[in-house]
Amino acid sequence: MCHHWISPVFSSLSPGHSRWLPLPEHCSNTHPRCFLGLLSCLFLAGLYVGSLYVWRSSSPRDHPSVIKRRCASVLLVSVVSPAVADVSVWELMGLRMDGLVAASILPLLLTMVFYLGPLVHSAIDNPKGFTGEMQCALDVQSWRRCAGDAVWLRNQVVAPVTEELVFRGAMLPMLVPCTGPTGAIVTAPLFFGVAHFHHVIEEQRLGKESMSVILLVAGMQFLYTTVFGAFTAFIFMRTGHVVGPVLCHSFCNSQGLPDISSALQHPHSSALLFSYLMGGLLFLVLLFPLTDQYFYGPIPICSLAPPPGSVC
């Protein structure tokens, strides 16, 4: 007998229940639901990107007026995404109180560990060293200036919040019942990576680079956004919170890609390379301990997974 499972997302069960109902032997009934889930993810990705282009403007993407309009668009998409995803339980999208403090600290700490090399690099280049870096981080006036900068608000606040809600919070609950936790972590980032190809249109319009260069850059962006999407999807699945992915996303946007080539040419290259290596190793060592369910309580989205759920 073939057993399929209906999750609370797609059934009439109350939010507090996570029972599984075995279906009869018509196993093929699950395939349309999974296909519909994939189409819904594709629709959400298209809706998110398409909302950026509903405003007609000849200004570049970093112009304040363009940023404000696009921020309004993606915020609206984030609000309506639960309806598109058919997600009736907000907790499944990672909006819950249980374990919130740990979810706000530990995933971000894990990400900072990965960036140990770039952080040490920045501190070495600062005339005041680590003290200077801490002073910059705690400078209230600097934060006020950032809050008034439209580009900063887009990159550090609006993009992380809206992208994590749509591409993790809304998509993963649709994918997990069909693909399982691991499959969802692999599948969801592909939509996230493809969604960044729209930059090709803007770069082509500006005409500053040849099409071959634009496509090469877009391919690289697809690669690292997909890898990053897999990481935040993993954090979401392990913690059951969207706040961790949002904060990690914001931090990574502020840091950019680790510049190893610059570290190789630095006068203190040995110390920097050691920092990069230690950051990577510590990240791997701490990846599962810092995302252990002990800190976050029962993970709602894991109740959707057909057993066994390895990541959960």
Automatic annotation (TrEMBL):
Xref: InterPro entries: Rce1, Rce1/LyrA-like_dom
Membrane-traversing stretches: 35-54, 74-93, 99-120, 213-237, 271-290
GO molecular function, one term: metalloendopeptidase activity
Zinc-finger keyword on record: no
UniProt topology in membrane: Multi-pass membrane protein
Keyword Transport: no
Record keywords: Endoplasmic reticulum, Hydrolase, Membrane, Protease, Transmembrane, Transmembrane helix
GO biological process, one term: CAAX-box protein processing
EC number of the protein: 3.4.26.1
Domain CAAX prenyl protease 2/Lysostaphin resistance protein A-like: 151-254
Alphabetized Pfam families for the sequence: Rce1-like
Catalysed reactions, semicolon-separated: Hydrolyzes the peptide bond -P2-(S-farnesyl or geranylgeranyl)C-P1'-P2'-P3'-COOH where P1' and P2' are amino acids with aliphatic sidechains and P3' is any C-terminal residue
GO cellular component: endoplasmic reticulum membrane
Location(s), subcellular: Endoplasmic reticulum membrane
Similarity comment: Belongs to the peptidase U48 family.
Name by which UniProt lists this protein: CAAX prenyl protease 2
Species lineage: Eukaryota, Metazoa, Chordata, Craniata, Vertebrata
